[in-house]
Structure formats: structure tokens, C-alpha cells
Design goal:
The protein is built from 10 helices and 7 strands. The chain has a 7-stranded mixed beta sheet. It is of the alpha+beta class and 260 residues long.
């Protein structure tokens, strides 16, 4: 008589937990984007491949095996933004400078030299722009360099001041269209072009500025501020999340928490 034993090791439980965790994080990144539909399509093809292989359908199995074989490369190309966000999430959230397991600490690497941010000038500028209903888009770098985004635009390398920010976004100035990028407490670039988010859950009343801010926060660890031209609301995007209509006082506290 043959007895069947099922042995469950601690590593098996850990394996299941890690797979579930990774799938959850992937879902959180691609939910409510066009990538979700692509993922469902790819998963359906994979299940179909398992099915035809189980029924020993040789021709279909051969064809679909070839598709699955090159699928990994195709997925990297199709999901390049999502892969970037996933790796960025791991690198910044779980191996950041505030955690014991930090590669930046081990290797003594600082990708952005941390200088005290001139928070007061930024808050005053946003407050004044909000009162005038002047649209603005401000990207503030955090731990990692976003120089690739600042290369497209007009280089300033100017000290931060509320008057300068307000002047840049004045409708009659040639620099008002686009974003300003602040790196290391300097306004490095004006008229920068940001990536547009593909998130389909954004309210229809939000325009290109909000989509660009969300897209920037999805692809980097930057803190992005928006002043709405229609409502005057001050909003911000961070880690792929968008929050609408905050007060100057809330903004000041947020920036203090993020940068000081």
C-alpha cells in the first residue's frame, strides 16, 4: 500500500507569500492603465498554451511555444514604463536611505546631494499663483537624479525665489509653458517636458498638467506640484498618486516632511 505524504516546508510558505506579494505590487502598478488589458491578454494566451499542451495538441503547442519563447522580450518592451516603476518602487521604498538595507549607505553613494530646500519661497509662490489662477507645474527632485528630464528645456541653474517662480509661470513669459525642475535647491530647468500618465481613472476635468505631474511621479521619486489654471487649486503627485486641492499650510508641512 502506497501512502501519500504532503510535506509543507517553511520555504514553500515563503515562496507562496513572495509570489503573492509580487503579483499584488504588479497589479497596483498597472491597475487602471492600458497595461492592465495587455496583461490580461498575455495571461489568457499563457493559460491557453497550458491547456493545448495538456491535451497534447502538437501543432498548436509548437506555435504557442514559439510565441511564449519570445514573450519575455516583448513584455519588457511593452511594459517598459511599468517595469521601471516596479524597480523604482523596490529601490526607493524598500532599500532607501531610511532603511537598514540601503545600497546607498553600503556603497556610500548619493545620487543627489541633499541641500536644505527653500520651502518658504515655493509655498509663497504656489499661494500667489493660486490666488491669480495662474497654472504652474513644479518638479522637486528627491534622492535620485532626474537629469534626463531636465535636459529638455531651458537651463537656468537659478536660486529659488517666489518672485522668480511666479515670473516664470506668468502667461506672457516664454518660459511659462511646461514645468520647472528643482534639483539640489536650484531651479535647474524651465519649460521642461514631462511624460503623460496613462492612468484611465483620472477625473475628466483634470488637464494635461495633472496628467504630466502624475506621469512624472510614476516614473521617478520626485514630488510634483500643480497649480490649476481653471480652479486655482494646489495639488501634488507622489509615487503615482494624485491629491487635489491642498492648502498652503498643508503644502508646507508636506515639503518639510519630504525634504527636511
Amino acid at each position: 500500500m502506497t501512502e501519500l505524504f504532503i510535506t509543507i516546508r517553511f520555504l514553500d510558505i515563503l515562496d507562496i507569500f513572495l509570489v503573492a506579494f509580487i503579483m499584488y505590487k504588479v497589479y497596483m502598478i498597472i491597475r487602471e492603465t492600458v497595461a492592465m488589458n495587455i496583461f490580461i491578454g498575455v495571461f489568457t494566451i499563457y493559460l491557453l498554451w497550458l491547456l493545448v499542451r495538456a491535451f497534447n495538441m502538437q501543432l498548436l503547442t509548437t506555435i504557442m511555444s514559439q510565441i511564449i519563447g519570445v514573450g519575455a522580450i516583448a513584455l519588457i518592451i511593452v511594459f517598459q514604463q511599468e517595469v521601471r516603476r516596479f524597480l523604482l518602487l523596490i529601490g526607493t521604498r524598500y532599500f532607501s536611505l531610511n532603511t537598514p538595507f540601503s545600497f546607498s549607505k553600503i556603497l556610500s553613494v548619493n545620487l543627489v546631494t541633499k541641500q536644505p530646500l527653500n520651502i518658504k519661497s515655493i509655498v509663497v509662490a504656489c499661494k500667489n499663483l493660486s490666488k491669480k489662477k495662474t497654472g504652474a507645474l513644479i518638479v522637486i527632485a528627491k534622492k535620485y537624479d532626474i537629469g534626463s528630464f531636465s535636459d529638455i528645456g531651458d537651463t537656468l541653474n537659478a536660486n529659488i525665489s517666489s518672485r522668480l517662480i511666479e515670473t516664470i509661470f506668468h502667461k506672457d513669459t516664454p518660459l511659462h509653458d511646461g514645468a520647472i525642475i528643482i534639483i539640489n535647491n536650484k531651479i535647474k530647468t524651465a519649460r521642461a517636458i514631462l511624460p503623460i500618465s496613462e492612468n484611465t481613472s483620472m477625473p475628466m476635468n483634470l488637464g494635461t498638467r495633472h496628467r504630466a505631474a502624475l506621469g512624472m511621479s510614476e516614473g521617478s521619486d520626485a514630488f510634483v506640484l500643480i497649480v490649476s489654471e481653471q480652479t486655482g487649486y494646489i495639488s501634488y503627485a507622489k509615487d503615482g498618486e494624485l491629491r487635489i486641492d491642498i492648502s498652503p499650510e498643508e503644502l508646507s508641512l508636506l515639503l518639510e516632511k519630504e525634504y527636511n
